[in-house]
Amino acid sequence: MKKIILALSALALSATISAQTLEKHPSEDVKIGVAGYTFLRFSIDETLASLQKMGVHYLSIKDFWLPLSATEEQMAAFKEKCASYDVDPYILGPIYMHSEAEVDRAFAYTERFGLKMFIGVPDYDLLDYVIAKVKETGIRVAIHTHGPDGAAFPDIRTVVEKVGDPSLGVGCCMDLGHTIRMGYNVAKDIKKYSKWIYDIHIKDETAADKSGGTWEMGRGIMDFKAIIKALKKVKYDGVVSLEFEKDNTAPQNGVAESIGYLRGVIDSCY
Length: 270
What we know:
The protein is α/β, with parallel strands linked by helices.
């Protein structure tokens, strides 16, 4: 009888552990992605295979995989390939625009792909033309921020200042690493400018100034708990994409470590 009781107890314990193992984690409800630039030196097939191993389902698409001249047929084949790895090519870009012709090309490229938003970086004097194209096409533009290195749109404040009205369909792909390199508090900026944030690139940094470089998440100076709590507070429901610029010849280990850390932080905050 004791053996039967012990056996039943063991089965009950096993069932309890299995139920705990299968319990859904809060991070599963957050759209975690990877920014395409992370895999600059890898083919789309190699990239998708890496994401599949990590259980990542969102990828921003750079034109080194899908040229701006790609046809609808080529785009359909590309999307089918992504789907075979259970990855959503959820946004295109960043696409840099230095002329009205390049603005037209970016919007046409996005329209052919079937999306209603892309990450773009127009020259400042093209903003009025970009806003007009948004009104014409219904395709929104998320301007990528680039920090203190001299490129256009160093931070979200510049987007707000240059665009002026958040209802115009031109917002921000907020690079959180560059935000802290500009000396700003990332969590406070998320809460202050939430209505401008269309997309997010997340990373850790070695320093909170121009000297900072990408590091594996959790090893640097970013306060990710405060960031995740801020995103939760503003009810951000877009994708949070890791942009890992370190070790671009072999980023896989750093990406996996960072994604795992991010999931752990999310689970602790929700």
